[in-house]
Amino acid sequence: MRIIAGDLRGRQLKAVEGIHTRPTSDKVKGAIFNVLGEKVLNSRVLDLFAGTGNLAIEALSRGSSEAVLVEKNFAAYQTIKKNLEVLGVCQKSKLLLMDAFKFIHKNPDKVFDLIFLDPPYRQELIPKIIEALKGYSYLTPDGVIIAETAKDEDLAAGDMYPFEIRKTGEYGDTKVWYLQRMDV
Fold first, then answer.
1. Rg of the Cα trace of the chain?
2. Environment class of residue 154 by beta-carbon count within 10 Å: exposed (0-12), middle (13-18) or buried (19+)?
3. How far is residue 20's CA from residue 181's CA, in Å, rounded to a whole number?
4. pTM of the model as a whole
5. Is the peptide bond preceding residue 120 cis, with omega within 30 degrees of 0?
6. What strands, in cross-sheet order, belong to the sheet with 139-150?
7. What burial class does residue 91 get, using C-beta atoms within 10 Å of its C-beta: 0-12 exposed, 13-18 middle, 19+ buried?
8. Domains along the chain?
9. What is the tens place of the pLDDT at every residue in 34-75?
């Protein structure tokens, strides 16, 4: 697992030992950032279910101004901490050992341009997180929520209002969903 573009291009990331995390593959990560394009520049990033920090660190490498990474698993938290330190991006990031839902309810005044959601597959966590986000103004008016699911999971069946699915992409067993506010 490596950073694929930007200032940190080619640098390696440590993975969490064991099988409890599933880092986003370089192929999927490349596709996500190709879709996001210039939106990454100077963006404020929230990475819920951060795992290894892969997505937030890639965003920082590509020009994001700051990132908040939220992870409740202690081993994953420790891995993210090491990745942030080794890559020298601690000053642009804030790492929290916390449940994603607790973060949302405890930080209602935070606003982000990009929100990454990459929880464990097939646990219906993304619809629940979207529901929790609805009660707050976490996303800037032109911001994007990027959600990863298993290919056979369907977010379109749920009530996403005030967000709408603007784009999807399938890569092997992964499906990526891009959501924005309906009024944009």
1. 15
2. exposed
3. 32
4. 0.93
5. no
6. 93-97, 66-71, 44-48, 112-117, 139-150, 174-181, 163-171
7. exposed
8. 26-181 (3.40.50.150)
9. 999 999 999 999 999 999 999 999 999 999 999 999 999 999
